[in-house]
Amino acid sequence: xxxxxxxxxxxxxxxxxxxxxxxxxxxxxxxxxxxxxxxxxxxxxxxxxxxxxxxxxxxxxxxxxxxxxxxxxxxxxxxxxxxxxxxxxxxxxxxxxxxxxxxxxxxxxxxxxxxxxxxxxxxxxxxxxxxxxxxxxxxxxxxxxxxxxxxxxxxxxxxxxxxxxxxxxxxxxxxxxxxxxxxxxxxxxxxxxxxxxxxxxxxxxxxxxxxxxxxxxxxxxxxxxxxxxxxxxxxxxxxxxxxxxxxxxxxxxxxxxxxxxxxxxxxxxxxxxxxxxxxxxxxxxxxxxxxxxxxxxxx
Length: 299
Description:
By secondary structure, this protein is mainly α. It is 51% helix and 8% strand. The protein has twelve helices and six strands. The protein has a three-stranded antiparallel beta sheet. Strands 5-4-6 form a three-stranded antiparallel beta sheet, with helices on both faces. The longest helix is centred in the last third of the chain and has 23 residues, at 209-231. The N and C termini lie far apart (57 Å). The model is unreliable at 86-101 and 242-261 (pLDDT under 50).
């Protein structure tokens, strides 16, 4: 079953459980359900639709009802009860076909694309499929290999820091946190990005952690796949073999809170401080706290 069909059936199932749903809320619930199934959030523009309501009208006009408000307010979406479809997609516990399984890139490939250090150089060897990942000017043997046969190598376009931050902010928009819940997380997004900062952001999400991990993985996978298409690189040269996948598999982290909850701001702050090094506390946490205290003292 393709992604569009899954999306349409998910919409119908979500609507079958309520008398109606506001358009914005329906899209939020849909995107979270797609992420939980290892799929990317819906982008209406892929289907030549400017708005979510246009997508609904185009794809599901025979199955749903759109009620536009007389003045202000969001569109109400409800399902025609006689058309509620049966659920046909695989549940998370069912065996998925090989083509539907999540792409797992080699660790060296993954790190070359996501490492945020701008001083590092990253290249892919078209012949051996190896990755050269080194700091420029350090006299590394990898740099010598590049200089000896520059024609064999293709530059890797790594994910910019600004893009990492956009993904983080986009996830917070998706789950629609209150200002109090979002505050500590936004402080992290506004700080200097690093792998440690992303780890702290992830842990501070509490029960939402796994949803963010799935969304981030999807975004990175899409970024790498776009690079392969642009540079005519085979995906088979970047992914892990079946044997390597079994060796690298890790158990999922059990949720400790209800799925629709985020840690309280005080819990987030305590957990973040425990994850930070002394240097990160000095550079990130203390300036943020002082700025907040000083701003309140001037009111």
